[in-house]
């Protein structure tokens, strides 16, 4: 077993390349890039999550008895939002998904909505629970009955 590793030779230790200033500068740059990316994502997600259509969609998912039964209580949205939200005055389009989780499971909320004359109308509002093949549809009576006025 003595032949597995070559014997160490005094003075042959490798030194770290660069000075402490180079390492400190590299670390500061890396920290700055990560902090900037986190700030950018935070601003983007905060803008999305403060929209009326996002709040209404999450509220409908939280208040649904079937979603609460599958995920447990409390039902909370995740931090990630994927999709698009375009609003121009009284009109807009929202297509996004966001994770939901509770003590008993995880799911994804899928939303598609249109804003016309300051009223959002949900076209798709569904929750896909992990491990379940069918989605929970949150729209009752068709999309026309799921309009809500934007509060300004």
Written overview of the protein:
The chain has 152 residues and is of the alpha+beta class. The chain is 32% helix and 32% strand. Strands 1, 2, 3, 4, 5, 6 and 7 form a 7-stranded antiparallel beta sheet that branches. Strand 4 (105-116) and strand 5 form a beta hairpin. The radius of gyration is 25 Å and the shape is elongated. The N and C termini lie far apart (78 Å). The model has no long low-confidence stretch (mean pLDDT 82).
Brief descriptors of the model:
single chain; alpha+beta; 7-stranded antiparallel β-sheet; 3 helices; about 30% helix; elongated
Compact description:
The protein has helices at 20-49, 52-63, 65-71, and strands at residues 76-77, 82-88, 91-102, 105-116, 119-129, 136-137, 147-149.
What low-confidence regions span 5 or more consecutive residues with pLDDT below 50? none
* Total number of strands: 7
Class by alpha and beta content: alpha+beta
Percent helix range: 25-40%
Mean pLDDT: 82
Summarize the topology.
Elements: H1 20-49, H2 52-63, H3 65-71, E1 76-77, E2 82-88, E3 91-102, E4 105-116, E5 119-129, E6 136-137, E7 147-149
């Amino acid at each position: 077993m003595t032949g597995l590793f070559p014997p160490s030779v005094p003075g042959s230790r490798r030194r770290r390349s660069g000075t402490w200033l180079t390492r400190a500068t590299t670390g500061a740059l890396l920290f700055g890039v990560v902090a900037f990316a986190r700030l950018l994502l935070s601003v983007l997600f905060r803008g999305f999550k403060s929209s009326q259509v996002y709040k209404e969609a999450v509220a409908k998912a939280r208040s649904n008895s079937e979603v609460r039964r599958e995920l447990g209580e409390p039902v909370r949205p995740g931090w990630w939002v994927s999709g698009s939200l375009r609003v121009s005055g009284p009109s807009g389009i929202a297509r996004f998904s966001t994770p939901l989780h509770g003590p008993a499971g995880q799911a994804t909320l899928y939303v598609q909505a249109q804003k016309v004359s300051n009223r959002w109308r949900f076209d798709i509002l569904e929750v896909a629970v992990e491990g379940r093949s069918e989605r929970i549809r949150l729209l009752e009576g068709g999309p026309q009955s799921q309009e809500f006025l934007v509060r300004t």
